[in-house]
Amino acid sequence: MAISNIVSEVGVFLLRIYVLVVWNIIILYQILSRKRDCWIRINDLRVVHENQGFLVINKHPELLINCTTPWINCLTLQMQLFYNRPHYANWKLKNMFHFVHRLDCPTSGLICIAYDTKVASMIRRAFEKREVKKYYLAIVWGYVGSFCDSDLSSSFVKHESKLVHHIQMPIGSFRYIWPNTGRKQKIIVPITHPECHRPRESLTTVIVLDYGKLMGEPATHVLLIPKTGRRHQLRVHCAIGLGHPIAGDITYVRRPFDHPNIVYLNNVYAMHNVNLDYKLKHMMLHAYTMKINLQVNGKEKNDNTCANKRSYQLPEEKEYQFQTNNNPFFNLNNAYLWQKDEESEKMMMMTTGQRTTLHTLEEYILNNAY
């Protein structure tokens, strides 16, 4: 038994060395070929919570969750977890860990991963029953609803005020062929698209926090609250429903969407002779806060120990809240490309009679205002 444990530990050690080497080779290649701007250290795993059978990680932007060939493309959160927490890996699972939900590769912020089967079932049940609330911060191009309603004329948007907008737009998939490269990509389109496949209900609330300039162009700092969890929901709702694409999103601004704000953005790109989104280090979308209301069923109450027998108890039956404070991935105070627009702030006060600050942002989240 002791010999088998030693062999197992040596095997894991060698695999970790392999992952470290391949990880750095991939990042070096991507930086040299200008496919990536920032280096991600494999040991820079930002843990927000680690206990009771699950982790909450503040994921780096431009990092895949997992892939079909993890030992070839090691540049994934799955392999970063394996390198830093090998004792949590379950070799019976396809991806070694229970990824109970997902984040897009370009999106930074909170993601929940279970390393215990029972806990994974509890968290998945919370997602299925919509007992999970997520709040995202984003910067979108243009001034959202600040001076007129012409840029918010979509029939899918209901305006509670100049600062609060509710998007109810069914979305589905579409296999798009990029005209320049011929590359095929499965993207998300609204139900109005003639080739929209299997549209599903999707709802998002958008709250304006601040107006400013990003690389000298008008932009808005917003809080996004998804009520459903569809693939690319926030990106599509902002770009097509609201008409204000998320800054740094190179997918949903390149297609010729029929919306005046995106026409305006294309004119801005023409003036700069470059797509401004490529100048940003990553997409300006961050999973800021997550609330998970965990419920224990009868069977779990009778046996409240974790399935992997590591002697810790199942999570308590309560609402857990996680947040990324002082976050380096999305900090407007340190964003040298972002400048607050005082004139637009004054105009917002004149047209709306109200101002949203970070203090009220915390109140929205704390008091479940939406």
Automatic annotation (TrEMBL):
Belongs to the pseudouridine synthase RluA family. PANTHER family: MITOCHONDRIAL RNA PSEUDOURIDINE SYNTHASE, RNA PSEUDOURIDYLATE SYNTHASE DOMAIN-CONTAINING PROTEIN 1. This is Pseudouridine synthase RsuA/RluA-like domain-containing protein. The keyword Transmembrane applies. It comes from the Eukaryota. It comes from Schistosoma margrebowiei. Keywords: Membrane, Transmembrane, Transmembrane helix. Residues 54-239 form the Pseudouridine synthase RsuA/RluA-like domain. InterPro entries: PsdUridine_synth_cat_dom_sf, PsdUridine_synth_RsuA/RluA, RluA_PseudoU_synthase. The keyword Transmembrane applies. GO terms for molecular function: pseudouridine synthase activity; RNA binding.
